[in-house]
Hints:
The complex is a heterodimer.
Chain A: E1 4-11, E2 21-28, E3 33-37, H1 44-52, E4 59-64, E5 67-68, E6 79-82, H2 94-104, H3 109-123, H4 138-150, E7 156-160, H5 168-185, E8 188-193, H6 196-202, E9 205-210, E10 213-218, H7 220-225, H8 230-235, E11 242-250, E12 256-260, E13 263-267, E14 274-280, E15 285-288, E16 296-304, E17 308-315, E18 318-325, E19 335-340, E20 346-348
Parallel strand pairs in A: 3-8, 3-9, 6-7, 7-8
Antiparallel strand pairs in A: 1-2, 1-4, 4-5, 9-10, 11-12, 11-14, 12-13, 14-20, 15-19, 16-17, 16-19, 17-18
Helix pairs in contact in A: 2-3, 2-4, 3-4, 4-5
Chain B: H1 3-31, H2 54-61, H3 64-95, H4 101-110, H5 116-129, H6 136-141, H7 147-158, H8 162-170, H9 175-186, H10 188-204, H11 207-212, H12 221-231, H13 236-268
Helix pairs in contact in B: 1-13, 2-13, 3-7, 3-10, 7-10, 8-9, 10-13, 12-13
Amino acid sequence: xxxxxxxxxxxxxxxxxxxxxxxxxxxxxxxxxxxxxxxxxxxxxxxxxxxxxxxxxxxxxxxxxxxxxxxxxxxxxxxxxxxxxxxxxxxxxxxxxxxxxxxxxxxxxxxxxxxxxxxxxxxxxxxxxxxxxxxxxxxxxxxxxxxxxxxxxxxxxxxxxxxxxxxxxxxxxxxxxxxxxxxxxxxxxxxxxxxxxxxxxxxxxxxxxxxxxxxxxxxxxxxxxxxxxxxxxxxxxxxxxxxxxxxxxxxxxxxxxxxxxxxxxxxxxxxxxxxxxxxxxxxxxxxxxxxxxxxxxxxxxxxxxxxxxxxxxxxxxxxxxxxxxxxxxxxxxxxxxxxxxxxxxxxxxxxxxxxx
Amino acid sequence: xxxxxxxxxxxxxxxxxxxxxxxxxxxxxxxxxxxxxxxxxxxxxxxxxxxxxxxxxxxxxxxxxxxxxxxxxxxxxxxxxxxxxxxxxxxxxxxxxxxxxxxxxxxxxxxxxxxxxxxxxxxxxxxxxxxxxxxxxxxxxxxxxxxxxxxxxxxxxxxxxxxxxxxxxxxxxxxxxxxxxxxxxxxxxxxxxxxxxxxxxxxxxxxxxxxxxxxxxxxxxxxxxxxxxxxxxxxxxxxxxxxxxxxxxxxxxxxxxxxxxxxxxxxxxxx
Lengths: 356, 271
């Protein structure tokens, strides 16, 4: 196992106006599971393919362990990749699929047999070894792809949205399977996903990418509790953070208020003037009778989930979501008061960057 | 489509099928007719007893066993050669990255527009200069590369998911291993299609063997049939008996490999 270090990694595809990846610097520690999170087109897959050597970096360096692998072909980088579409060889059996890399590298036959059956055992594939990929379910196929990766004992594992093609129950099953592998092998893993739930539950650290740039790196708790900018705030969390656009003005009694839509929010910022983005998570929004609270809002949508209810509100043109415990007796079109928990405010400047 | 429309279409197809099959039936009928009955008017498909003796008589009038052997040798060598060259070139055009690749491919494709007749004389001059007239080398060499075959396989290779190639690269495979162990095994249907169609093409080939093969021992079946026509121009049953025999290998091939013929048409829009 080894660390993976990216330095100013930039990738511009031929004929593209903008780089797909801009000056990405990131260190994945030895044995760490790092999640690259972002919406589609943010550059996360590009980053992964550059690390694998399937795409060549336009600028910057990639180090795996002690080696600079920036210009090495994929075969010499000693990394394994699990693809979204499994990418199993359809003409080979499960056994041959898992053994392929070892055969190509001329590992002795006996050793191949031993390692393939060990990997199959670990992933519960022993019964399926003589089948072909077409005879397997999606979950089984992805297990075979995992087997193909672990059998090589590579320096690092790369996962490219490996669970996106699976149904929800299978997804959580394989999620814990991958976590188990990570613990058992102590392997360095880089895991690409657009699913922030996957990122939160799997990553030891999360790197959030957007428009080819790294926005924030941190533990799931850090990224959730202190998002670095408006994009991260909105993207992480389900639903994401409410970000209200407002104007601050100082008040005579000291401090300031921010006026966003129909809400007037007193904040502890000293004499803040001008445009500002106020962030507050749905769980820190509560409802009150219309005349109380920071202002009134109209209920747009009610989503009962059982243990909680999501209420979408329109506060004078600004939409926000409240996450409230249990099932609620509210109706679409009702006017209610809105309360925000000021201990959990996040402030961003007009460009979206976090203030303090 | 409406019921009536369907019936009309079916009728049209049946008519076309009949028009295709009729000459073959007539050929077969004539091959089994006595020499003079063949000229009876009006012509009929069934005319008295079947004259099976026409077959041995026609096939020994000229050394047809040798012709069949020659056709088989030439067709087999050409099939193997075309599979090899087409697969390699198609892989390069489909998967490798090099400057001018697509323009070069268009250049290759444009050769399809040149009638074979135009190339006959230059080909002959080259083969003659090499001293290969009246040899297998002369019959085979200029047929070893098929632009159509390259086109067919390139189209097929492009449908193989790129992720398989990526996975193989990460597994440590080089270009040759990817080609031989991933792309070729996955392309069996396309390779079979090419093999079948190129075999048929060679079996039917007439003009080039006519030009290159001088001695009787080097003749192929198609040219043999033409020679038989020269010798027995009034004996239609003999000629048809030989022609029927020449068709049998193709008929068998078609029965066995029908789906590859169809696939070839689907994949390229060319027969």
